[in-house]
């Protein structure tokens, strides 16, 4: 079945992201002091607000791309214009928050504010991932994940071997992967758009915002919530608390890879079959079976993985185990 096939491919993609993501966190947490590691992710917490640039557009793309009455290239171009408008509004807010929370020298030497580029690139890449997944090219997600996270890991290791533990080098390595991943995924999308016969109506900015508004609440509240959680921790307990929470959160997110893969595959499948009641019922049935059997497996794997925290991220993060259990 389509959902089973796509879930398998997307699980591989999620697993690649999780494993390589944990490798990135492992390198940074071992080479940077716990307070400096927490400072990095305090900065990233502020720029997490850039994830609002999705604004429900990923869901709209998954819903409208299967519709032959909508021109795909017009939809993607309008999404990009809309994201540019949103980002232009959010970046000044992020900069203001940074200068309220931190001293100028903390942000500028080294230019730690560049970490925001990784969040922005990730948000934009999500649209490309959704488009490719919706047209039946879920396997491209694996390639994008390998390029994105894989390039970051490789860059970090090369930096360590060539220059030692250089914070500026690590900073450039950290943002390079997501940027390369965005460029790579954009090339894949443009290639597919050139192969698809473009027909149907064009989607304007106002129509896109109207379509995305019902889904924008979740895609807006989630990054605000994640950002606020870390900023509150920072203000209440300092960067060390942020570091401990971040490691626990990454492990927690890793345990949910299977569930996320199923959810992503369901949206595309449901959108393409919404006019066929029988096929829709079959997709719902297959989804329930997958969730019933695989979701507990993800929870078990995540729970067992929590006990590896002191070995993967150093003993400084042993308190992350208790935080993980609370999150679970």
Layout: helices, strands, pairs:
Layout: H1 2-31, H2 34-47, H3 57-64, H4 72-101, H5 104-108, H6 116-134, H7 139-163, H8 167-195, H9 205-237, H10 239-255, H11 257-272, H12 277-306, H13 309-313, H14 320-327
Helix pairs in contact: 1-7, 1-10, 1-11, 2-9, 2-10, 3-6, 3-11, 4-9, 6-8, 7-8, 9-10, 10-12, 10-14, 11-12
Structure description:
The protein is an all-alpha fold. Helices cover 82% and strands 0% of the residues. It has 14 helices and no strands. It has helices at 2-31, 34-47, 57-64, 72-101, 104-108, 116-134, 139-163, 167-195, 205-237, 239-255, 257-272, 277-306, 309-313, 320-327. Helix 6 runs parallel beside helix 8 (167-195). The longest helix is centred in the last third of the chain and has 33 residues, at 205-237. The two termini are 31 Å apart.
List keywords for this structure.
328 residues, mainly alpha, 14 helices
Biggest β-sheet, characterized?
none
Helicity, as a percent range: over 70%
Let me know the average pLDDT: 81
Fraction of residues in β-strands: under 5%
Query: How many runs of DSSP E, i.e. beta strands?
Result: 0
Number of helices: 14
- Which radius of gyration do the C-alpha atoms yield? 20 Å
Give the termini distance in whole angstroms. 31 Å
What is the SS-derived class? mainly alpha
- The geometry reads as globular
Q: Which spans of ≥5 residues are poorly predicted at pLDDT below 50?
A: none
**N to C succession of SSEs:** HHHHHHHHHHHHHH
């Amino acid at each position: 079945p389509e959902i089973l096939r796509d879930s398998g491919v997307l699980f591989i993609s999620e697993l690649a992201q999780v494993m390589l993501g944990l490798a990135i966190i492992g390198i940074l947490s071992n080479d940077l002091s716990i307070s400096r590691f927490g400072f990095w992710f305090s900065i990233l917490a502020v720029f997490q607000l850039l994830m609002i640039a999705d604004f429900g557009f990923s869901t709209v793309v998954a819903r409208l791309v299967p519709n032959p009455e909508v021109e795909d290239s017009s939809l993607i171009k309008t999404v990009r214009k809309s994201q540019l408008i949103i980002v232009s509004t959010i970046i000044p807010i992020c900069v203001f928050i940074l200068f309220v929370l931190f001293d100028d020298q903390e942000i500028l030497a080294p230019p730690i504010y560049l970490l925001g580029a990784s969040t922005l690139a990730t948000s934009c890449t999500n649209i490309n991932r959704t488009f490719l997944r919706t047209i039946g090219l879920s396997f491209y997600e694996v390639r994008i994940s390998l390029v994105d996270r894989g390039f970051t890991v490789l860059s970090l290791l090369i930096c360590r071997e060539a220059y030692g533990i250089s914070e500026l080098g690590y900073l450039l390595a950290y943002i390079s992967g997501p940027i390369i991943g965005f460029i790579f995924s954009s090339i894949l999308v443009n290639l597919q758009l050139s192969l698809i016969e473009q027909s149907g109506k064009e989607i304007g900015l106002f129509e896109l915002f109207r379509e995305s508004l019902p889904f924008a609440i979740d895609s807006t509240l989630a990054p605000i919530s994640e950002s606020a959680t870390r900023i509150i921790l920072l203000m209440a307990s300092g960067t060390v608390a942020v570091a401990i929470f971040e490691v626990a959160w990454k492990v927690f997110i890793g345990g949910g890879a299977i569930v996320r893969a199923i959810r992503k595959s369901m949206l595309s499948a449901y959108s393409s079959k919404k006019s066929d009641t029988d096929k829709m019922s079959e997709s719902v049935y297959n989804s329930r079976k997958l969730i019933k059997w695989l979701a507990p497996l993800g929870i078990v794997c995540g729970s067992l993985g929590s006990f590896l925290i002191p070995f993967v991220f150093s003993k400084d993060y042993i308190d992350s185990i208790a935080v993980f259990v609370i999150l679970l």
